[in-house]
Write a structure and sequence with these properties.
Distance between the termini: 7 Å
Strand order of the largest sheet: 3-2-1-4-5-6
Structural class: alpha/beta
Order of helices and strands: EHHHHHEHEHEHEEH
Strand content: 5-15%
Bound molecules: 6-O-phosphono-beta-D-glucopyranose, magnesium ion
Number of helices: 9
Number of strands: 6
Helix content: 40-55%
Oligomer: single chain
């Protein structure tokens, strides 16, 4: 493990429990439009950009939506989602996150965020981690959504490391695929464990302490 010098953490579903708010916001939009939506479909939205997520939600729609309508639906989803972020606080960090991040930082690893979310800066501020990471790469500085590795490659570049020197930690299948596509080692947590193509699988963040 000596070549490992840094980490790229996904945010939603890895550092913080915002994934449930994404689900509830999409569910509200789907219900309003009379579109079937459940947790299984929601799992396909993990790691996927807002507009690409909407396209997945609309697969079960009974009509075609114009680009203008799609932009309005995505904006409405984001309004509902951001409303729920008002309540977000430090205790919404997922179990083991605080101790594990401190442990890795104290061991000298470079730590970064690689998230598809354009709400990343707001979320990091709400949970008190806005100045903690060495770099933040997010939905605001990328063109291609996971499984394209762009967001992780930019994070690695920002912390001055090669992909081979970084471990990506992800809860989405799109994110594990992105890590593989970018030649990163990967750790799957939560839903991402099901695809069995990550380097490691963990049940909670504190298991990283045993691995690294
Ligand atoms: C990812 C989430 O982190 O961010 C996805 O897993 C979400 O579900 C994506 O669609 C984009 O988020 P946002 O906050 O820009 O709508
Ligand atoms: Mg995620």
């Amino acid at each position: 493990m000596s070549q490992i010098k840094g980490f790229v953490f996904d945010l939603d579903g890895v550092i913080v429990s915002t994934d449930k708010y994404h689900y509830l916001a999409w569910k509200a939009i789907a219900d309003q439009e009379g579109i079937y939506f459940d947790e299984q479909i929601n799992n396909r939205l993990r790691g996927v950009s807002r507009m690409a997520s909407l396209d997945i939600v609309l697969e079960k729609a009974h009509k075609e939506y114009t680009q203008e309508e799609k932009v309005a639906l995505a904006a409405a989803k984001n309004d509902i989602y951001r409303e729920s972020l008002n309540e977000l606080k430090e205790t919404d960090r997922l179990p083991g996150v605080t101790d594990t991040l401190n442990y890795l930082k104290n061991k000298g690893y470079k730590l970064s965020i690689g998230s598809s979310s354009k709400n990343t800066p707001l979320i990091l501020k709400k949970i008190g981690l806005d100045t903690f990471f060495d770099a933040v790469s997010d939905g605001n500085n990328i063109t291609y959504s996971k499984p394209n590795p762009e967001v992780f490659l930019k994070a690695a570049e920002m912390i001055g490391l090669k992909p081979e020197e970084c471990v990506v930690v992800e809860d989405s299948t799109a994110g594990i695929e992105a890590a593989n596509n970018g030649s990163f080692l990967s750790v799957a947590i939560g839903d991402a464990r099901k695809i069995k193509s990550s380097t490691y699988e963990i049940n909670s963040m504190d298991e990283l302490i045993k691995l690294f």
